[in-house]
């Protein structure tokens, strides 16, 4: 395992990891954890960095802990250590305009705890403002500090995609994007200037302007709109604050909480990363074997509804499969969603009213796309995708068809079941689907063509549990073929985007 020595005293970070290096490093992290605390103290970090071929001295270790010891515990968790692989983006300091505060803490005068910060909208009907009014008592909310909502909590606590629960606001596009970015160990931490709970309630979050091609510093306070003491919008699953604060930073960037009520599923990756334009793939109506390709851009960085889709031709489902495998190999961010009506009607509802089909798939809901893999097992080739619903542990919202955790057909595929470690599956929002079933139920996919610095946690979790496509049961080899290059035709013109929940 080789890393270029990029870290130096005074700053910097570690070079990106490929999947194999990531897994080996995770094992090395555990080996250096001599007291089994799941953290490394400065001496243990020094040994690990030395083993990685990085320069080490007292100043470097001190700076490393200053940058990545988010809870100031004197030891680094795995998530904190992985934050070092995400390079710091230069941002211009933002003015922090304070408003008089009764508690002596920072109150943001630009985005104060008032009704306007919830309901301000240049086009109420387009922003579905009536829904926000109904769920926020006409904007007359109780504003509580995040430290009150998460008493004795942390800003970060082993960040995970399942940290996020949707409230009554229809911003699953944003929360699913946040969950998708939380797949990559350390990225969420890199978006915050502060790494631990601040005494004054002031935080600085990085937002990317893809038109100006620069990162911006967005300063917020930690006041969160609540009804009966519970957040109206995002709700952290654990006692940590980053979910509440990242959602608030997005609301300030776009103008109000109402102005993050519904958007295109790929928008989060256009302002929370610097990956640039995304590629989207949409099934033609009634044809699950042909997809139209479009390039997605954000025409106005402060308007989440300004997505422009430039047609770039079409490809077959087989060509799309190759594209997805290549994106998987390159560690790109991927997402999927569907505009298809659920077969047999809805069997349940999500937090903000989305219909959950009897097979567990949610129309108009965004999912993290974890992997596209081929497995040779039980005498046949299986094309499988792995998906994560950011609703996490909602058992009604996991796929219940072929290849699902409780699928009765697993007894006919013992080799594949063993390779995927199906017996150890959990209600964690992640599930497998055959490529054919995926195309039957999902209408759209998107790829942000940026190679992330760490592999997806979904793939890492799978690998740790035996879910990798290499090294199968019964002496079989479950290998993932390399994706050959493919090319799609091009076309001209622009088309407005479709929204997501």
Q: What would your notes on this structure say?
A:
- With 501 residues, the protein is α+β, with helices and mostly antiparallel strands.
- It folds into 3 domains: 19-85, EF-hand (Recoverin, domain 1), CATH 1.10.238.10; 115-257, no CATH class; 278-496, Alpha-Beta Complex (Cathepsin B, Chain A), CATH 3.90.70.
- It is built from 15 helices and 21 strands.
- Strand 15 (346-349) and strand 16 (355-357) form a beta hairpin.
- The relative contact order is 0.13.
- Mean pLDDT is 83; it is low at 1-12 and 463-499.
Number of helices: 15
E-strand count: 21
Can you give the mean pLDDT? 83
CATH fold topology of the largest domain: Cathepsin B, Chain A
Which key features would you list for this structure?
501 residues; alpha+beta; Recoverin, domain 1; Cathepsin B, Chain A; 3 domains; 21 strands; globular; disordered N terminus
Give a quick precis of the structure.
This protein has 501 residues and is of the alpha+beta class. Helices cover 25% and strands 22% of the residues.
């Amino acid at each position: 395992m080789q890393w270029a020595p990029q870290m130096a005293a005074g700053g910097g970070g570690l070079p990106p990891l490929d999947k194999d290096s990531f897994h080996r490093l995770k094992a090395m992290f555990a080996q250096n954890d001599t007291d089994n605390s799941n953290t490394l103290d400065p001496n243990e970090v020094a040994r690990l960095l030395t083993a990685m071929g990085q320069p080490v001295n007292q100043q470097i270790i001190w700076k490393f802990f200053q940058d990545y010891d988010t809870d100031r515990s004197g030891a680094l968790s795995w998530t904190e250590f992985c934050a070092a692989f995400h390079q710091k983006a230069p941002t211009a300091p933002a003015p922090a305009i304070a408003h008089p505060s009764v508690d002596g803490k920072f109150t943001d005068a630009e985005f104060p705890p008032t009704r306007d910060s919830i309901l301000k909208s240049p086009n109420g009907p387009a922003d579905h403002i009536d829904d926000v009014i109904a769920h926020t008592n006409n904007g007359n909310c109780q504003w509580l500090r995040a430290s009150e909502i998460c008493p004795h909590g942390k800003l970060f606590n082993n960040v995970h995609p399942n940290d996020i629960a949707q409230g009554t606001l229809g911003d699953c596009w944003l929360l699913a994007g946040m969950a998708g970015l939380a797949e990559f160990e350390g990225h969420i931490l890199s978006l915050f200037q502060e790494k631990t709970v601040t005494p004054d309630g002031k935080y600085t979050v990085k937002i990317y302007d893809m038109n100006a091609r620069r990162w911006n510093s967005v300063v917020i306070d930690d006041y969160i709109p609540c009804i009966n003491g519970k957040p109206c919008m995002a709700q952290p699953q654990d006692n940590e604050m980053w979910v509440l604060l990242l959602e608030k930073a997005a609301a300030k960037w776009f103008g109000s909480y109402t102005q993050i009520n519904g958007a295109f599923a790929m928008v989060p990756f256009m302002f929370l990363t610097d990956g640039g334009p995304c590629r989207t793939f949409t099934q033609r109506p009634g044809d699950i074997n042909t997809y139209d390709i479009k390039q997605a851009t954000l025409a106005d960085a402060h308007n989440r509804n300004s997505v422009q889709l430039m047609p770039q031709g079409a490809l077959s489902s087989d060509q799309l499969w190759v594209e997805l495998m290549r994106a998987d190999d390159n560690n790109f961010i991927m997402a999927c969603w569907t505009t298809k009506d659920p077969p047999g009607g809805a069997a349940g509802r999500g937090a903000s009213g989305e219909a959950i089909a009897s097979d567990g798939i949610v129309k108009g809901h965004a999912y993290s796309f974890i992997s596209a893999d081929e497995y040779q097992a039980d005498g046949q080739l299986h094309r499988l995708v792995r998906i994560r619903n950011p609703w996490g542990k909602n058992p009604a919202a996991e796929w219940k068809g072929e290849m699902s955790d409780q699928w009765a057909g697993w007894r006919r595929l013992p080799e594949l079941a063993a390779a995927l470690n199906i017996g150890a599956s959990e209600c964690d929002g992640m599930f497998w689907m055959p490529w054919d079933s995926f195309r039957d139920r999902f209408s759209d996919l998107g790829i942000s063509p940026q190679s992330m610095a760490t592999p997806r946690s979904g793939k890492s979790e799978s690998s740790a549990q035996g879910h990798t496509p290499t090294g199968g049961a019964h002496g079989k080899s479950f290998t993932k073929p390399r994706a050959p290059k493919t090319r799609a035709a091009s076309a001209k013109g622009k088309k407005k985007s479709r929204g997501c929940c």
